[in-house]
């Protein structure tokens, strides 16, 4: 297993109330990864403004699910799940794994749309010197596309909040192993949702601009570099929001777009690794419960 980059940076040593200290050593690995991610969430809850930080979170989730996979390979854990396969709390574990896949699919679609937006804008800049090039049209298309994507993200964030507000699992069983297992899997789901929420919030964030067309903004800000600089500072270093502001004001550069495209691709890679882990974990649960 590859060491998590969160280990050194976010050493968040908090005793969990989930699995008992006498459980299998692999259980401790799940708790360790959970604590690192809790530290990541706490450290970045107020100012997540870097793709690099998001990559850390996605990598941390991947490491977390590697430890969950190891936990599910334990024969005792498999026996507990099989014995209680018809319990409501086990059904909720399966439902949670499906919800995570749905959210992951939405996030992947959003990143793909973002990348297409950036590539279209790059193409527009290359045609800028052409007599037939219409900058006003390109800005309006970008703005419209961005607004549609923002609505999708806002809906997804709303759904995430509803998931997070659901009551935690409260198995009434006397089987403490089941209670412990279900509790830790619920914690894994919650922390995964937190990382998704952080990523989607980062992507959707943009300083509120006047309600006018992109072309009107371009005319207003065309020669006012001071306003552009102030807008960039207000974005707090968020490269996604900064590019959005610069495109709307006609001050974007190819270099800035290339950097953003590279960042998006790195997030896509991290999300793809995470998606594969989510699929593998759900498949493992289904295989265990079908025996």
UniProtKB/TrEMBL annotation:
A Pfam entry, by short name: BPS1
InterPro entries: BPS1_pln (IPR004320)
Designated name of the protein: DUF241 domain protein
Superkingdom assignment: Eukaryota
PANTHER family according to UniProt: DUF241 DOMAIN PROTEIN, OS06G0725500 PROTEIN
GO BP annotation list: root development; shoot system development
């Amino acid at each position: 297993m590859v060491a998590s980059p969160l280990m050194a940076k976010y050493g968040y040593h908090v005793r969990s109330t989930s699995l008992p200290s006498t459980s299998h050593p692999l259980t401790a690995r799940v708790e360790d990864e959970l604590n690192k991610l809790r530290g990541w969430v706490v450290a970045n809850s107020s100012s997540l403004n870097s793709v690099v930080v998001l990559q850390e979170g996605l990598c941390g989730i991947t490491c977390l699910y590697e430890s969950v996979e190891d936990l599910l390979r334990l024969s005792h854990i498999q026996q507990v799940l099989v014995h209680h396969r018809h319990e409501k709390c086990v059904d909720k574990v399966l439902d949670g794994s499906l919800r995570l896949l749905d959210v992951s699919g939405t996030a992947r679609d959003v990143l793909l749309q973002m990348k297409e937006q950036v590539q279209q804008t790059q193409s527009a800049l290359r045609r800028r010197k052409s007599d037939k090039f219409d900058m006003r049209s390109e800005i309006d298309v970008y703005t419209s596309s961005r607004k549609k994507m923002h609505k999708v993200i806002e809906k997804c964030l709303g759904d995430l909040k509803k998931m997070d507000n659901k009551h935690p699992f409260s198995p009434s069983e006397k089987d403490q192993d089941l209670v412990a297992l279900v509790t830790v899997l619920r914690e894994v789901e919650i922390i995964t949702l937190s990382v998704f929420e952080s990523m989607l919030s980062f992507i959707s964030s943009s300083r509120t601009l006047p309600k006018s067309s992109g072309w009107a903004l371009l005319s207003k800000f065309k020669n006012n570099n001071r306003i552009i600089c102030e807008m960039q500072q207000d974005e707090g270093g968020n490269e996604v929001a900064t590019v959005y502001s610069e495109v709307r004001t006609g001050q974007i550069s190819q270099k800035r777009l290339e950097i953003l495209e590279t960042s998006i691709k790195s997030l896509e890679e991290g999300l793809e690794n995470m998606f594969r882990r989510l699929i593998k974990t759900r498949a493992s649960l289904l295989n265990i419960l079908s025996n």
